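Annex B.
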Amino acid sequence: MMQLLTHLLNPITLGIMLLGCALIALMQNGAKAFAHSFMALPALWRADPERDMLLARATMTRVDHVAQLRGLQCTDRVRAANPFLALAIRKLADTETVDRFEMWAEQALADRRSRHEAVHKFWLSVADVAPALGMAGTVIGLVGMFAGMDDPAKIGPAMALALLTTLYGVVLANLVAAPVATRLSDLSERELAWQTELCQRMLRVARRETAPVRRASIREVA
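Flagellar motor protein: predicted structure tokens.
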């Protein structure tokens, strides 16, 4: 078994495959997506959208309570562990009009969705590229094998290269890149769902708290 694993693991060939996939995906998606894609990897096992959603709902209940008692300007006293939630609370407390907060929320959610889609696209690019690089390695290996038919000692390494590159391409595409892309896409959808819900609740609170002010202003004008 160990001997088989030794034959299957060729660090140089694997390194070339990984480097080739990374470079092509980098050229297709850009440096920013490249960096964000690897920075997002810890989320595969750390992210818990369900927990974040429950915490956000509990925090929003406290924000609503503070807004009713002391007004929107005091809502920033509520502490939130989630960075997006903390930022949204500060924006709610500092906003001058409901429309301005609504514009911020729409833009923030759109920006987050765009970043998530770029990361998803990067890993899909790796999944698409890996089999193609594997086939290219297979062709190179076959060419080397046929070129060395007069020397039996050269046939084995060339055939091994041809088969290993195909194996590495299939593994990288179907067991690494594609599952990573699917997992990150699922996490993104669930995260954006609760963040959208949060912003909608904040908008309702902001409209409720500013409505009396607007009515008073209308009466004063009249």
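The chain has one domain: 50-211. Residues 152-221 form the longest helix (70 residues). Further annotation is deferred to the next reporting cycle.
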